[in-house]
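Morning!

This is the sequence you dropped in the shared folder:
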Amino acid sequence: MSTLYRRNPAIEASPMQGESLLFDPATNRFCLLNGTAAFVWDRLREPATAEHLAAEVSRHFEAPEPARVEQEVRAALQKFADLALVTREAVL
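The structure's back. Tokens below.
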């Protein structure tokens, strides 16, 4: 079973020189994403799994260790979920 991640539609985003600034109006909180996290956020325009996102990051950044990339993408997605920036849905 995989998990599908979706952006919280209430989150506002602004790109900033390779990074992104997110704003959650529900909590009145800002979140600054580095380049890699901003890339993941951008790819979440469409719902995606961690595996799919890790493959995209590996291709875009030419990362040498796919297992480590997937681990880091999962950590970023967990942080996004903790901050209510994304929702998760189990898929078969």
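Headline: The mean pLDDT is 94.

More detail when I'm at my desk.
O.
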